[in-house]
Amino acid sequence: MNHPSHYQVLARKWRPRTFQQMVGQEHVQRMLTNALDSNRLHHAYLFTGTRGVGKTTLARLLAKCLNCETGVTSTPCDTCDTCQAINAGTFLDLMEVDAASRTKVEDTRELLDNVQYTPTRGRYKIYLIDEVHMLSGHSFNALLKTLEEPPAYVKFLLATTEPKRLPMTILSRCLQFHLHPVAAEKIAAHLAHICVTEKIEYETTALACLAKAADGSLRDALSLLDQAIAFCAGHITLKDMEIMLGTLDQDIIFHLLDALLLRNGSQLLADITDLVSRGSDFTQLLEDMLSTLHQIAVAQVIPDLPDTPERIAALAKTFSAEDVQLYYQIALIGRRDLPFAPTPHLGFEMVMLRLLAFHPARPAVQKREASETPRLIAETTLKTAPPEALPLALTAENWPSILEKLSLSAMTSALASHCVLSQVAGDKIELSLAGKHESLLNKNQVDRIEQALARYLGKPVVLVIKIATTPLDTPAGQQEQKQAVRQADATTTIQNNANVQKIMDLFDATLDVNSITAT
Questions:
Q1: What percent of the chain stands above pLDDT 70?
Q2: Distance separating alpha carbons of residues 496 and 482, to the nearest angstrom
Q3: Are strands 376-378 and 358-360 parallel, antiparallel or unpaired?
Q4: pLDDT bracket for residue 388 (50, 70, 90)
């Protein structure tokens, strides 16, 4: 009678059999390899780390290294009877225990009763205790007694996700190794290797999506890959992965950020309504928003960072750094408070409305009191358009008026006010700077003007400022002329004032015109 072939899940089929096959944890592999090669062996090893990062896998590999028939080695042969038995889980001198299901002191005593007996087949008798933090207090005391004076032929390999729950008496008697979450890039590369070997077609972006969902756990990634193969019938695509995982394309986040940039409340609420109809995970959506804002903030600090996505780079130039920092903080607080909202949908919607309503107050061009600090101010409306019905057209004639609406800081405003708009070609804007004010020109100020223009126009722009060789009729120059006229008018008015003339005659005084300030 023919029996159907047994399918072995990928997490078991691709479990590493040597240190070289491990993905990640190079620091632990290096320390264990050096210890084995120099025969500097400890009697108790503790592996800590989150789920699925390789704790029990490393423990089994170490057991194989200690008992391989070729001798204690960091490169076991993987072919001898002992190696094969350890791979199959049938090696008599390797006792694996799940402490989560055997927490009673009686269980621990029963396990340790045969410590006094020498190994049946192997060089060492090995006790592999998984989730060791689950043992009871009495069980720890029983284990401690053996750890204090173990026979030379006994090794303890302990694994836990919560080392803080272990008594210090246990910790102090173990050689500890902390395993890190595996980087998403390494997970994706490993998944690609498996797909090629298993002859599974895939999209690179789909595997990257799986690697991100695994959250540092290689075992979870392999389980997800098993699920993906079944879901996609042999061809793994990003679209199918987003459906399977319930995740959303990052374009959704970009769409929400575009609505925030344009202060378009109606579009923002329409997008959220559409997300509700899709059955979106709003907790995950908020986390994706935080991740995207983080990417934008990094791109603003390091604009030439390699591999920065084009959309991220564009948003980094469009949003101000202050807006990004405030948005991140509001979204982070919203993520924390989301469980307290009536529904995740309403909680997410409220966070988006806060992002729309608040932005950092920016210093005006006028003089400010030294004690005045930036504060959050709310927009007076959440309607579809900006506060102004329509922005002024970007022309040389409108440049002084537009400049007043850009909310630039004093230093940045000084640079912009000594410029004139010389050319607009598509998304490229060119300003000419009066030559005598060339000292004001620096990249940071140019970037801030570029960001302010992008906010004003509601689209990314590229700003270029060139030094002019001829005199310019700049907004600052126009302001100076207006101020000079007001000053002359104020001086004439005071000089011709009858009361002022009487005082001058009475005290034989003269008028100090430099003390007159026009307002």
A1: 86
A2: 21
A3: antiparallel
A4: very low
